[in-house]
Amino acid sequence: MFNIATITAAFPATGILPVSNRKSPPFLGASADVFPSFLLKEMERIQDPFARKLVSRIEMLPVELSGSKHRIMSSCVKPMVQDTANPLVLLHGFDSSCLEWRYTLPLLEQAGFETWAIDILGWGFSNLETLPPCNVDSKRDHLFQFWKSYIKRPMLLVGPSLGAAVAIDFAIHHPEAVDKLILINASVYAEGTGNLAKLPKSIAYAGVSLLKSLPLRFYATNLTFNALPFSTCLDWTHIAQLHCLLPWWEDATVDFMISGGYNVSALINQVPNKTLIIWGENDRIIDNKLAVRLHCELQNGIIRRIPNCGHIPHVEKPHAAAALITEFLPHEPPRYNLPKLREQEDKILVRPF
Questions:
Q1: What are phi and psi of 206, to 5 degrees?
Q2: CB 243, CB 97: distance < 8 Å
Q3: What ranges in 56-135 are assigned the alpha helix state H?
Q4: Could you tell me the pLDDT band of residue 67, with boundaries at 50, 70 and 90?
């Protein structure tokens, strides 16, 4: 009934990016002007060379929220490629950071796209020492002010997981800032944070404290991906946990929780933008039926699936994700160097177990 294309052997990405058993050298490249010293020390345990490289590219740009006198030093990865076409802007999922894009962002840059990766207000590595509100309105305003200050052209906005709800909400409220949407394993049908919004603050803080614990993060990482080796799962857990160590993370997360969160299901059929839906078909977080529902409700959507892939394709199958994004977006000339990428893939991927 639905024309759902499947990624073929051209971009198999059939394994999991490994973590070296060799001791990693001292962590270099991340700036003390960007990260506090204790976080730099935590980063030294990260083995993943792609994460380490992307960390070294994170910068802080000042963003002033509407009606606020305080500037938020906002974490992002700026483009290495300058282009006259509309830029790709990569968001991330719930309680995550731009480090989600450590594998796919370099591929998109190799393909010739001007590519930004932005941390959503309240998550990631932005400096929130002034404790701004981190509700939906503030997150939307922060992204708009960032766009108005630094990007200034309609975006090809990419939202994975809850980032898809962020992208839909933003596209409806600021249509002038969005050209096309790319939604990856979209979490867009939850009714906000539900009953969590009604919790007393003391209980909310206790729950949030548990959320950043290593055992829970490890369990979530294992659930998110398919058949991760223990060492890889542990390293990816440390990467996902890094931003939670910042002193304002708990306040920002509780503020988002009790504010009610994102509830965009009623907005989906109002989205006029051409939209690509990418779906890892072995997602154990979001039901695959919701991918079909999303495809039906969008005015101008197409759907593509990636086999043998879990909830975050741009981490688990970066070459497949990059290929789909590249095929969806107009670009001249096509600069996706398939032989070179396949050669790199052979070097960094291990085969299924």
A1: -65, -40
A2: yes
A3: 104-110
A4: confident
Cα dihedral sign for 222, 226, 229, 234?
negative
For 352, the token pair is 């299924």
Q: Which of 139, 90, 125, 105 is nearest to 242 (CA)?
A: 125
283 is known as an active-site residue: yes
pLDDT-wise least confident of 3-7, 8-12, 105-109, 193-197 = 8-12
pLDDT digits (tens, 9 = 90+) for 208-236: 999 989 999 999 999 999 889 999 999 99
Does the pTM of the predicted model rise above 0.85? yes
Query: What is the full DSSP assignment across 262-311?
Result: ---GGGGGG--S-EEEEEETT-SSS-THHHHHHHHHSTTEEEEEESS--S
Q: Which of 141, 235, 255, 283 is catalytic?
A: 283
Q: Is 287 a catalytic residue?
A: no
Residue 75 catalytic?
no
